[in-house]
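User: Earlier you gave me the apo prediction for this protein. Now I'd like the version with flavin-adenine dinucleotide bound, so I can compare the two side by side. Same sequence as before, with the ligand SMILES added.
Assistant: Got it. Here's the input I'm using:
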Amino acid sequence: MSETRFDAIIIGAGIIGAAVGLELARKGYRTVNVDRLPAAGYGSTSNSCAIIRTYYSTLEGCAMAFEGYHYWRDWNDYLGVVDPAGMARFVECGTLVMKTPHNRFLSPVMAMSDELGIAYEEWNPERISQRVPAFDLRSFAPARAMDDPMFGESTGEPLRGAVFWPQGGYVDDPQLATHNLQCAAQAAGGEFRFNAEITAIRRDANGRVAGVTLADGSRIDAPVVINVAGPHSAKINEMAGLAGTMNINTRALRHEVPHVPAPADFDVGEGGMVTSDSDIATYTRPASGGQILIGSEDPECDTRQWVDPDDFDHEISDQGRVQVMRVAQRVASLGIPNRIGGVVDLYDVSDDWIPIYDCSDLPGFYLAIGTSGNQFKNAPVAGKLMAHLVDACENGHDHDAVPVRFHLKRVNRDLNIGFYSRNRPINRDSSFSVLG
Ligand SMILES: Cc1cc2nc3c(=O)[nH]c(=O)nc-3n(C[C@H](O)[C@H](O)[C@H](O)COP(=O)(O)OP(=O)(O)OC[C@H]3O[C@@H](n4cnc5c(N)ncnc54)[C@H](O)[C@@H]3O)c2cc1C
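And here is the structure of the complex with flavin-adenine dinucleotide:
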């Protein structure tokens, strides 16, 4: 008979859930990751663009992402196991971000990069044209809806330049990366249960979390339960009786990522780079097979599609089509296929697009949620941070009264975990977009 008592239950086996399982198991906790899907990384992680970049709108965001970069760079050493299914690969192609009034010509982010020792190069328009001849360097801002008569019209103004961050890129297979974490967690003694849907979260007589109940009626007991349910985070919080107890809440947001063939003069194959362009409110990422992935940077003109995570449309629609057409403004040679392929999935968006890594009002119940389309890159750090937080709180620390601090080893800097509190005021420094 399978074990029913553990030290910690992790709800979800996505990239962050698996990382939390790994780090708690490494600390000696008897852990089980429980997921309703058949394998690790099959939830929103599977459709992640898995871009690794170090530019965020807050210093904490940049620091955590730069810390995370090092884990992807040293992935095999960090895991210490060889997954028989193969190892995910970090393609360090660098990231090119256009300077625009929207991002204050990147001055704040360059200042934060300077403070954290993150390398970057400023590229003037000539340098951009040398590297990416296909780019039309006129401004088209602001991004517009497809039915706007001004759609596709340039302002006539030239872009001022861009910043290239060489320490960035993407992970070629986010699902495999999650499986790699699962293997490492299992090597450290962690367990995984799949096809196991949690339908209730139980409390003991003292009002502390006691475990979970599954759809088949079976129970798993543990004094620690962690919500890492991605776009289902709000539903899990509701099950735990926590609805209405937090200042920052989470919702599922539908997002489309079209995949289109890269034109010959847009060097975005294996040797290409990630681009982020707030002038046209899109980002691109090279992909295998000469394709590029196109994501949205959430411009105001686009309607946000808040959905029920158990009931949403999985087909590419005009949302994806407009993203392709916006990139075609910058890259005129981009063909727009009649039928656009790609993926549709959900972000678990917090009110200020910054995640919640925290304890909760239910003793023993923790939160790693609200990842807002931008935390794949941070998964290894989030795993360590959450394990540190759980361990501190389980050893009597009152995190709500005196926030726990977490040392970012590679960046050599302390992070106040209170920055990610469920009860913080909305962080007005945020981009309120996928950029975090
Ligand atoms: C289209 C898209 C593009 C993205 N691009 C990037 C990017 O380029 N860079 C970046 O850093 N981030 C990106 N992200 C964000 C990143 O992928 C997520 O932050 C990350 O994958 C979240 O991982 P997770 O483990 O928290 O959640 P998930 O991967 O969603 O895992 C949650 C798991 O919980 C399980 N679960 C839910 N409810 C229950 C239940 N009741 N019982 C049991 N199990 C349950 C689910 O089955 C699921 O497997 C992107 C996200 C999307 C959707």
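For your comparison, keep in mind: The mean pLDDT is 96.
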